[in-house]
Amino acid sequence: MTAVRLKDIRKSYGSVKVVHGIDLEIDEGEFVVFVGPSGCGKSTLLRMIAGLEDISGGTLEIGGEVVNDVPPSKRGIAMVFQSYALYPHMTVYDNMAFGMRIARETKQEIDRRVHAAANVLQLTDYLDRLPKALSGGQRQRVAIGRAICRDPRVFLFDEPLSNLDAALRVATRIEIAKLSEAMPNTTMIYVTHDQVEAMTLADRIVVLSGGRIEQVGAPMELYERPANLFVAKFIGSPAMNIIPATLIGSGAKTTLALPGNRQVTLDIPTAESKKGATVSFGVRPEDLTVTTSEDFIIEGTISIIEALGEVTLLYVEVPSSEEPLIAKLPGNQPFQRDEKIRLTAHATKLHVFDAEGKALR
Amino acid sequence: MQQLLFALFTMIVGVAACAAYFIVSNWILDRIFPSKSRSGAVASRNLRITNMIRPWLFLAPALLALTVYLLYPVIESAWLSFHGKDGRQFVGLGNYRWMINDGEFRQSILNNFLWLLIVPAAATFFGLIVAALTDRIWWGNIAKSLIFMPMAISFVGASVIWKFVYDYRAEGTEQIGILNAIVTWFGGAPEAWITLPFWNNIFLMVILIWIQTGFAMVILSAALRGIPEETIEAAVIDGASGLQIFFKIMIPQIWGTIAVVWTTITILVLKVFDIVLAMTNGQWNTQVLANLMFNWMFRGGGDFGRGATIAMIIMMLVIPIMIWNIRNAAKEMEGR
């Protein structure tokens, strides 16, 4: 069943358009992550779903009902903010109970729900405390508890982990994942700029850029088959290496001419008409391996070595490219600066994008 | 023109003299305890000594001024309050005994309490309302400037303005006071507003409220803007109405600031003097403590002892509120 349906959703501030017609269907119980660089409109989109921003155009349905003009509290949503947004003058208990008190729930019901939420989030010992007496992670748990108490159909998270330190971020991320498993019928929409959060939490990721959807898909789909250059570069760290190339052979397999008089053949069929086109050849740093044979893709000189223990990053200067190529090799690697190396990759791990940045498949 | 030039000249000389004091005194200090071009031990000893003396050297003018204009008058007033008319004959608690039984003093204390109850409450309340409302409209800043403007008018100046507002002309003649003009336009009879016992107190208070609302508004407006927007959005999602958000989310978050504004105006009200002096001079049951003190001290009364006694009472009323105010303000600072 569709929980949230966005039809041609638009947002503009005066003459400035920030969201350019988003179409998206989110199923009940699904965990969807909006991801994209700052200013891509992901938070605006979330705030429109919440009802904190007016919708300039299009329709928004929650639970099969058009809610464009329904106030936030009646949409069956709950939101967790980046800054926690706890009421500083209220205890943890009152923070969680506030919404229910406004809705005039009975005392017993309020008490039951608050304790249930506190139990799930291990906040029972802190119910009498004020937010200022809590740590950052605890505050975020209270904010999540407040959302749970609203018993929403749709959970909205607006970069909920951004204010936490690295260790807490991981712990809270896992807690959110557990929470979503514990509530299989609750839909979750999560905004982040952190692709690790997106990859680990999402059932589906929506990659946004400049107020438009670049690609929607499962995390691995986005990683393995990026639809365009933007997604290819955005998902994965370090970003995918992009090398300008010319398409010289088409048909069932595609052959590209790379700088340095190298050729590479990919398992991707292309039309005859594409022959001679300028394209972008892409390969992920972690898909590159070092080779000594003549069968390599590209050759270059190591300019920087970053040894991180678990992996080693090699920055390789290659012909006719300003940016160095990055290779991510497992473990510690015995290379020296200024050493010449040859890199190759499996034919299935290669990507090619046309002049507009669309992936050729 | 000449006066203007003279004022400018005084200002320049004053600032220059202050600067000169700091530079010259510092220079002399460095001369007496030189730290340059001396051997290590002597240099470090001299440096330590100068560092100990320098703060006091720079504070000296301020401390001197405080002693002469604040500390000495307090002690002198206390001393005077136990002495008679001319300040020589010791009378013990005589002045205080007189005061408790004096009708005019009782009247003043009562009026002061009325001022105390009404003015801070009204000014803070209106300030809060205006601050909350003007934040939402495009002409809010214009409205704020207009409401803040009375702050720039001296109390006596404001009193002159309001004297015209309350002005009374005999029935039948043209009313130049706006209040009476309105009353007669609606067919009523003109009143001599500031002579109506009890109500005239309120009419005088209106002037101070008019002045102080701007102050309360500016401080509270800043506090309201300091409230994190997300807490309000969270309350919107929780289903709170505009009024509920204002009273349950916004007001509690700026409670500390409201207390500071309230007490600051309270202290000001305890010292209220100029308005009463200019409007009624304490006639028609509008007397307040500060004006009463002024009467006994410097006018008509000519009794230093009684004047000083009333001054002591005002001081004792102000001090606890002031301590509370300073503590609250300090707490607010920490919170930021």
TrEMBL record, chain A:
PANTHER family: MALTODEXTRIN IMPORT ATP-BINDING PROTEIN MSMX, MALTOSE_MALTODEXTRIN IMPORT ATP-BINDING PROTEIN MALK
Family of this protein: Belongs to the ABC transporter superfamily.
Span of the signal peptide: none
GO molecular function, one term: ABC-type maltose transporter activity
Location of the protein in the cell: Cell inner membrane
InterPro entries for this protein: AAA+_ATPase, ABC_transporter-like_ATP-bd, ABC_transporter-like_CS, ABC_transpr_MalK-like, ABC_transpr_MalK/UgpC-like, Mo/tungstate-bd_C_term_dom, NA-bd_OB-fold, OB_MalK-like
ABC transporter domain sequence ranges: 4-235
PROSITE patterns, sorted: ABC_TRANSPORTER_1 (PS00211), ABC_TRANSPORTER_2 (PS50893)
The keyword Membrane belongs to this UniProt entry's keyword annotation: yes
Keywords: ATP-binding, Cell inner membrane, Cell membrane, Membrane, Nucleotide-binding, Transport
Highest taxon above the source species: Bacteria
Membrane-related topology note: Peripheral membrane protein
Gene3D superfamilies referenced in this protein's UniProt entry, alphabetically: 2.40.50.100, Nucleic acid-binding proteins (2.40.50.140), P-loop containing nucleotide triphosphate hydrolases (3.40.50.300)
GO cellular component: ATP-binding cassette (ABC) transporter complex, substrate-binding subunit-containing; maltose transport complex
Native source organism of the sequence: Phyllobacterium salinisoli
Pfam families with a match to the protein in the record: ABC_tran, OB_MalK, TOBE
Name of the protein this chain belongs to: ABC transporter ATP-binding protein
From TrEMBL, chain B:
Highest rank taxon of the organism: Bacteria
Keyword Acyltransferase listed: no
Domain (ABC transmembrane type-1): residue spans on this chain: 109-325
InterPro entries in alphabetical order: ABC_transporter_permease, MetI-like, MetI-like_sf
Gene Ontology cellular-component terms listed: plasma membrane
PROSITE patterns (UniProt xref): ABC_TM1
TM helices/strands, residue ranges: 6-29, 56-75, 113-134, 146-165, 202-224, 245-270, 304-326
Keywords for the protein's UniProt record, in alphabetical order: Cell membrane, Membrane, Transmembrane, Transmembrane helix, Transport
Bilayer topology: Multi-pass membrane protein
UniProt subcellular location: Cell membrane
GO biological process: transmembrane transport
Family membership: Belongs to the binding-protein-dependent transport system permease family.
Record protein name field: Sugar ABC transporter permease
Species name: Phyllobacterium salinisoli
